[in-house]
Fold:
Amino acid sequence: MGHQANCTRPSRPVALTSELRQQEGAAPAVARYPTLDALRGVAVIVIVVFHCLLAVPTTSGRAADRFLQGFVAVLPSALDLFFVISGFLITLILDRTRDADNTVRTFYIRRALRIVPLYYGFLLFSEVFLRYLGPTDVGAPGSMKWEWLFLTNFIMAFRTPAAVGSLYPHFWSLAVEEHFYLIWPWLAVFIRPKRLIPICALIAVFSLTGRIMMARHGLAYAGWLITPMRLDGLAIGSMIALMHRHNPGLLKRIAFPSLLITVFLGPPAFFLLVMLLGQTSVVQSVTAGTVGGPMLGALIFGSVVAVVACRNRSDRSSGPVGRALKSVGRYSYGMYVFHVPIMVIAFHTGRVDQRIPLHGYAFPYRLAFSLAILLTSYVAGLFSWHLYEKEVLRLAPPYRYSLQNASAVPAEA
Structure:
């Protein structure tokens, strides 16, 4: 948003000046939440480690390896943190710019410049330079049309994950977010916030109910992937953003108690359910995880984001760990795009082995491999941001306000 808005400055109350300066390019339209950058960094680290641990399977039945295998099963919940943060920030932007000229059009242009160049650039690169990897990695002939159309999650749900090849399965979550962006801006801008908050709650309940119904028909995995059944995190993040904007007092009162309740009561109740079902069937145990896991993650991470939103947003130094996580959060999109292809290429060259047990234990190698992929994908994301993504974003138009709308911009507290 580093562009000057081309609008006439009328005389206005002093209280409006700070907000309008933000909209005209002196500062972002939405203030940054540094802690959310750190949380995004945590989420992408967990996801990268999860995919690394899957790619380097255990080699023994020893207790340490069995424990690690069970630990791996809970790591995908980090995706729900991504969804909650995305719903929160996107809805915050849309709500604060609802009085701008052509809000939805500007939003779509800005979002496309953020997501599409890197994503399509990678797809084009893989079409040209990675076809040598073969159908196991790049998918069957013609299968890449699903990636180009942002439909990876649907083809994985109703065919098989192998249908998209090993280079692209992580793009299913990106497809969910893109589908959310198709509809949500229209609702967020044209429906009054007080009506939109209960709509968010209904969407979350609908997603959970849909997963339950699909699981009853043997489609639990499909329900875990397709967009209508994965909107609970995005909806809860959006609801928190609306409460933060329009009822901050209520959000401040309930944020921390909600965090305590969800953290201390949610996981034990969930794991008890999984254990009880697991005594009947492993399939039922896994089904419980795919059905209830996203909602539990959305509630826990939604409470975390609510607490963060209610705290001071100043970007004071938070120590080396905090600064490192914020740096990872900044490059998280590039890291997410590149980390799976980096693993696939590493394995394909034959220079990296998927199984190197040390004294019969797989854990040391799996840990070392995860750290190596984390570092490599961080460097790739850093170069991608500074040499490509950031330059493309210079083309993003600012949110502009006409004379009539400029006088209606709400004052910043």
In short: The two ends are 21 Å apart (CA to CA). DSSP finds 18 helices and no strands in the chain.
